[in-house]
Every structure is written in structure tokens, then in C-alpha cells.
Design brief:
The chain is mostly helical. The chain has helices at about 1-25, 30-55, 60-80, 95-120, 125-145, 155-180, 185-215, 220. The longest helix has 28 residues, at about 30-55.
């Protein structure tokens, strides 16, 4: 499967480059939005090729990272549209089949992978399957519960977008380290990016929460471009 493998590697390289640019660029500006879209498209290719490769080679690590990372990216991108999901008249800005279906699929798949890791706890891959699978399943479950809630926090979409997109980036870095940095211990390669990234995300989120606590809104700390047509000044979404 050289073509499929090369396509997977190429998409992974593009996703990492686009993620780096999006993180460094001013939030909401043109460079940030364009690189973010490239990141989402590249991660879509990564996910599709990862599923096909894992099914052909029985690579559960690749399957787990593929599902986990893509749900993070997809839900993070959709958060930009779900600012007022219970009141919007436009279907693009409401919680729909894509959001619920992706969460349900992730819940089932990650639960199964986590259970597999628990059964085969004595293998090297078990901690990865249990931790990433458990996190993915919990995240999807919380999303499904949130979809049924009528109470929408004004800044929830902002932090969901931020945390999920960064989480997808961490998963991509994990895959890169696992396949390229053989000199490091397995657990360092598999779980190191998650531990370091979680600390970095926590600090970054705390900084933004302190800004919002001063009475600022998301639009005061970043450029908000994706809005409903009726609320857009220039009609662009």
C-alpha cells in the first residue's frame, strides 16, 4: 500500500505545518483562518487513510489516534458554528446529524478500543488504548449530553474550538513521535505529547478566562468571522 501510506504521511506533514501556522498567527485573522481550514482538510485525509491502513494492517494504535484526533478537530471546527445552537434558524448553525453522528461513532469506537486495552492490559499498547480511548469516549459522551442541554454558555464555543483544535494537534504530534522517534521509550512517545500539551492548554485557557472575567467577550480577544448571515456586517460567513 505505498500510495496510501505516502498519502497518509504527506497529509500528516501538511497538518502539522498548518497547525503550527494557525497557533502562531493572530486568532481569527486571515492567516489563522486559512491555515485552520488547511489543517482540517489535511486531518480529514489523515483520518481516512489511517482507518484504511489500520484495517489492512490491524494497527490499533493508528486507528485509535486517527479516531481520537479527527473527532477533536471536527468538533473543534464545528464549535465555530455552534455559538447559538438552540436559537439559530440556519441549519449550519444548529446541532445536526453530523455533530451527533460523529459523537456517537467516537463514543462506540473509543469505548471498544479502551475495553480492548483493558482486556489485553499486559501488552505495550494497552496504556495507550485505555487512556486515549477513555478520553475520547468521555469527550464524546459529554458532547452528547451537552447537545441536549438548553443552556448555552456565551463563551463555550470559544474554548471548545481552542481546546479541541489544540488537542487534535497534540494527537498529530503523538503519531509523528511514535513513528519517527524510536530512540525514546514507548510511553514517552505515546503519552508525552498528551501530558505536556494538557499542561500548556490548561495555562492558555486560564489566560483567556482571566481576560473574559474582566468583562471582555470572545470578540474582544479574537476576531470572530463565522457568524450567522443575519448578524454579519458584510454578509460573509
Amino acid at each position: 500500500m505505498p500510495f496510501l501510506l505516502n498519502a497518509h504521511i504527506a497529509a500528516g506533514v501538511v497538518s502539522l505545518g498548518a497547525a503550527a501556522i494557525a497557533i502562531a498567527a493572530p486568532k481569527g485573522r486571515r492567516v489563522h483562518r486559512l491555515s485552520g481550514r488547511v489543517f482540517v482538510l489535511a486531518m480529514t485525509a489523515v483520518f481516512a487513510s489511517a482507518v484504511m491502513l489500520s484495517l489492512r494492517t490491524n494497527d490499533l494504535f493508528l486507528l485509535t489516534v486517527g479516531i481520537f484526533s479527527y473527532y477533536m478537530v471536527l468538533s473543534g471546527y464545528r464549535a465555530l458554528y455552534l455559538k447559538h445552537p438552540t436559537t439559530s434558524a440556519d441549519l449550519r448553525f444548529r446541532i445536526g446529524a453530523l455533530d451527533k453522528g460523529a459523537a456517537q461513532f467516537t463514543l462506540i469506537a473509543c469505548s471498544g478500543l479502551s475495553a480492548y486495552g483493558a482486556v489485553y492490559w499486559y501488552t505495550d499498547l494497552a496504556p495507550v488504548l485505555m487512556i486515549l480511548g477513555g478520553i475520547g469516549a468521555l469527550m464524546a459522551l459529554l458532547d452528547l449530553r451537552r447537545f441536549r442541554s438548553k443552556n448555552v454558555e456565551p463563551a463555550r464555543w470559544f474554548f471548545t474550538h481552542m481546546i479541541r483544535m489544540l488537542g487534535g494537534t497534540i494527537a498529530s504530534v503523538t503519531a509523528f513521535m511514535v513513528t519517527n522517534l524510536d530512540m525514546l521509550p514507548p510511553l514517552v512517545r505515546w503519552l508525552g505529547p498528551t501530558l505536556v500539551g494538557t499542561v500548556a492548554i490548561t495555562i492558555w485557557v486560564s489566560v483567556y478566562k482571566m481576560r473574559l472575567a474582566k468583562g471582555l467577550g470572545p470578540e474582544d480577544v479574537a476576531v470572530v468571522r463565522i457568524v450567522e448571515p443575519s448578524a454579519a456586517d458584510d454578509g460573509e460567513v
